[in-house]
Amino acid sequence: MPTNAREYVILAATTATTELEPSMRIALAGFNLESVSFLPSETSIADFEHFEAKGDAIIPRFRGTNTVMGGFIDACDAAGAEMLPIVQTEAGARGSASEAAFKHYASMIVDAIRAEAGRLDGVLLHLHGALTTPSRTDPDGDIVAMVRAAIGPDMPMMLALDYHANIDAASIGGADATFGYHYSPHIDMGETGRRAGNCLVRTLRGEIRPTTAIVKPGLMVPSILSATGLHPLAEFVEQSLRLPAEDARIIDATVFAGFSYADVPNCGFSVVVVTDGDPDLAHRTALTLSDKIFQAREALYKPGFAMEMATGVDHALAVAATADAPVVILEHADRMNDSTHILRTLVERGAKGVAVPYLWDAETARDACALGTGSVGRFMVGGKSDPRAGGPVLMEAEILWAGHKQYIGTGPLRKDSPVDLGCTAVLRSGGITVSVTEVPTTAIDEDPFRQFGMAPGDFDIVVLRSKTHFRAIWEPIAAEIVIVDTPDWGPADLLSLPYRHVPKTAYPFSAAGS
Would you place residue 467 in the very low, low, confident or very high pLDDT band (cuts 50, 70, 90)? Predict the structure, then answer.
């Protein structure tokens, strides 16, 4: 393997022991965004505020939920620790955060920690790992460094990241240990928070002294191929899960797939291993697993797996004609939940029995809410975020439901978590039913149907724009999942994107001679 195709570093353990106070006092904070840096729109402070919880409101909102913050709270509750909740906001996948948004939330977290100088024992921090701003390619790493500067060199800090984090030594070097989701779909977000929280508690009690190693195998894949149920990725994830059971000195291990639609120098896969005071073991273990991933690069990145759009739609319609369950057409290249390439094709073909849940179109949603349930209107639907999204589709539609929609999620990823779609409308035009939302939210479970008095089985074809999360629900119930390529900002062919910063020594760029 070429030496420039990977990076590794051993991150030093905290050198000082922490004297356990009668009651541990732990700061909790989360600022989370998966940035599609090619999108022209920025994610503003107002966008983050829609999902924001601050201070004491965080504990009741997230306790018992399958979220990283919920896992943090569980670990603190179990240890009898006092919590200092600062902020939690998670805006999903959108364009880069604005500079103002980054400064706002970074300052909020750091200022709150500094205000508690001398009264804190540790920090639990939840970031995504694929945040960008117009001028920063690793703002998550910047936040870690800022928090470390605020707490000093000796206070333990544990970092929890998304499975799709783009990280390197600089990104996580300020944390004592780093933990990531093991699965995509992210069914273990709460467990990831508990892993990080338990590590912090054990460190504060003097039971362990975590040290961390990171190795990058030099590989990028499109998000659609990052599903951890796919072969051979599933085998590497299972290997990482077995490591702590096989060697008691290993506290944790995570395979991160990276996020290929953030154009950053540390883009791509990483392996992170946390051990109890054994940096050499952490490095050797991470290096071994990373080398296995690199050797499997051609099996992990498989060009040509997605159908051309017209062919895929033809195939889906043919299967749906005789199937006894819905056929999913996956418009995976969509990045803002508003792509209309498949919708337009189905409208033009006069398709029947079609559902297009959670298409983001704030303008149409508000217009339909103003008209009200039972009205009929003409709408230019979707495709407004970027020219690659496909452009609006003209639809004359009956409004089946309209209003501000909030609910508690029931699916495996959003179970017990509040969901706020903002103004929402369910529109029916001919044989096609489209739900439009004011807030961009990916349809990944049955809630986009059940919450509006419908069921997935009411439809022959369901158009989704998820990448991996839909699989938890839809793989068992769909007659077939038809993956199609469209010209949006999340293509299967990474070589087609206008990258400026990603490592061109990484596969598939290295294979293409770039």
Answer: confident
As a whole number, the mean pLDDT across the chain is: 94
The angle at the Cα of 260, spanning 341 to 211, to the nearest 5 degrees, equals: 150
Residue 255 to residue 290: CA distance in whole angstroms: 9
Whether residues 279 and 382 fall in one domain: no
The count of residues in the chain is: 514
Same domain (yes/no): 226, 366 = no
Amino acid (one-letter) located at 441: T
Residue 217, CA distances (Å) to 70, 169, 256, 415 in order: 32, 13, 11, 34
Give CA angle at 146 (144, 150), nearest 5°.
115
**Residue 85: Cβ within 10 Å count:** 25
What whole-number distance in Å separates Cα of residue 101 and Cα of residue 92? Answer: 15
One domain, residues 409 and 265: no
CA distance 112 to 115: 5
User: Most distant CA pair in the chain: distance in Å?
Assistant: 70
d(CA 343, CA 391): 11
Residue 13 has pLDDT above 50, yes or no: no
Predicted local confidence at residue 511, as pLDDT: 87
Task: Return the closest-CA partner of residue 336 out of 134, 38, 99.
Answer: 38
**300 - beta bridge partners?**
none
- The separation between CA 296 and the C-alpha centre of its own chain, rounded to angstroms, equals 24
Final residue of a structural domain among 275, 300, 325: 300
For residue 382, give the nearest of 420, 329, 344 by alpha carbon.
Answer: 344
Q: How many CA atoms lie within 13 A of 38 on its CB side?
A: 25
Residue 142: is its pLDDT beyond 60?
yes
Q: Which helix or strand (DSSP H or E) is residue 241 part of?
A: helix 233-246
What is residue 272's three-state secondary structure? strand
Query: Does residue 170 register a pLDDT over 80?
Result: yes
What sign results for the dihedral spanned by CA atoms 169, 172, 174, 178?
Answer: negative
